[in-house]
Amino acid sequence: MGIGPESALSALSALSALSGSSALSALSGSSALSALSALSALGTESPAQAGALITNRDGIVGTRIEHIADVTPGLTDSPQNLARLAPNVRAAIYQSELGPSVDVSFKTQDDQPVATLWRRSEERSKRRAIVFDELVEMTGPTVQQLETQLKHVAGYAQIRPDRGAEILSQMGVPTSFFATIGFIDQARTPYTIEFLYTALGFSSAVIQRMKYALAVKRPIEFSPQVQPMIPTPTHGSLPSGHATEAFLMARLIWKLLIHSKVPQYNDHAYWGDMLMRQAARIATNRTVAGVHFPIDSAAGGLLGVTLADHVFAMACGGQWASTAFNGPNFDPRDDFDWHKIYCAADDKLKNEAVSDCGVWAKSKTHKEPSGSTPSPILQWLWSKALAEWQDLRPDQV
Questions:
Q1: Could you tell me if 117 and 98 are in contact, meaning their C-beta atoms sit under 8 angstroms apart?
Q2: Residue 129 main-chain phi, psi, to 5 deg
Q3: Residue 216: what pLDDT?
Q4: How far from each other are the two terminal CA atoms of the chain, in whole angstroms?
Q5: How confident is the model at residue 42, as a pLDDT?
Q6: What is the pLDDT of residue 41?
Q7: Three-state SS for 172?
């Protein structure tokens, strides 16, 4: 069955949380500029306003106008229309592109659950037969591994007083944390935020479907001493949704910085490395809170950077990467280390990650089929976001 976002239409509604106040509130110090606040009333619905508009029309409409010039037809199926649409309408259109691009299947292999995320590759024949390629294969860990991982959960619990503020602030989308590294602001980079939230809206359904298939239990079910500092979510533990979303955001921001061709972003991988550190801290904080095992973050981190590649390829074409996570081969004594799955300097996934138990992660790079083209809709959004990171030119209007 196809994937559609769990809350696709409302994915952009959290944008106002970025600064903790409305976009125009900073202008309120000037009475002249505060007139802009009235713009928020446009498009709102109220009985009083509807009544006012009715009587207003009666007063000004006059007699019927007989001859009005022909109206030019609209541009059909054109990205040029997107700029004139409301954000929630654009959100739905973006998801109509991303949602059908993947599918999920499930099987049991060697008594372990295996969930596979498939990527739509091409259509064949007049009946639109769809060909899918493996995008992510994820094998759940054993109960014994999770029991061993409880030592990490218990150890991390000791630093809850130090991380408490971060953990609570990261319950929602951690945009403000990434905004301390890249200059992300609702007024300065609105399309970047829209691009990131589009990817997050898409990833939400993928994450939940993979969790549902693998049904990995949470730390709270293994010991009465875990005692999480926040409520434990009802969905499965692996892959970690916070890890997936954090690494998805980190890599997409890094791709924007790289492709901007701005000197400071292309000098060294400092920026990419810092973004990944932030993603890893967000992921680890979920173990500190007592709601995740480190292996959940390893699976989520791998899923996140893989989905970032998929979204980028949908918008720009070119190469994409498939990955496999083999939970039973992850050494339960190990903590999560993002360096084992991804290299920020090259913006590439590592070929494989190995522990004393064997290879637990693999990746492979693929080329798009000949004749395939990026999504014009997502390409438009990417170009708008990318322009926000490029230096302004003296001759630019």
A1: no
A2: -70, 125
A3: 98
A4: 47
A5: 62
A6: 57
A7: coil
Number of Cβ atoms within 10 Å of the Cβ of 86: 10
CATH of the domain at 230: 1.20.144.10
In the numeric block, which tokens belong to residue 260?
């901007």
**What are the CA-CA distances from residue 272 to residues 16, 115, 170, 237, 339 (Å)?**
26, 29, 20, 27, 12
Token code pair at residue 173: 């989308």
Residue 392 burial (C-beta neighbours within 10 Å; 0-12, 13-18, 19+): exposed
Candidates 291, 288, 211; CA nearest to 244 is 211
What pLDDT shows up at residue 270? Answer: 92
What pLDDT is recorded for position 18?
A: 45
Predicted pLDDT at 22: 38
- CA 114 to CA 223: how far, in whole Å? 26
Q: Is residue 171 part of a domain?
A: yes
CA 182, 4, 289, 347 torsion-angle sign: negative
The DSSP bridge partners found for residue 348 are 343
Ramachandran bin of 186, using left for φ above 0, alpha for ψ from -120 to 50, beta for the remaining angles: alpha
For 109, phi then psi, to 5°, come to: -135, 125
In a domain, residue 246? The reply is yes
Taking 50 as the pLDDT cut, the residues of the chain under it are 1-11, 13-30, 33, 36, 39
Q: What is the pLDDT of residues 277-331, one digit of tens each?
A: 999 999 999 999 999 999 999 999 999 999 999 999 999 998 999 999 999 999 9
Containing H/E element for 389? none
Of 304, 337, 312, 251, the C-alpha closest to 117 is 304
CA 191/CA 83 separation, integer angstroms:
10
Q: How many CB atoms lie within 10 A of CB 373?
A: 8
Segments forming the whole domain that contains residue 274: 85-387
- Give the separation between CA 149 and CA 332, rounded to whole angstroms: 6
Number of structural domains in the chain: 1
Cα distance between residue 242 and residue 385, in whole Å: 23
Q: Is residue 49 part of a domain?
A: no
Say if 130 falls within a structural domain.
Answer: yes
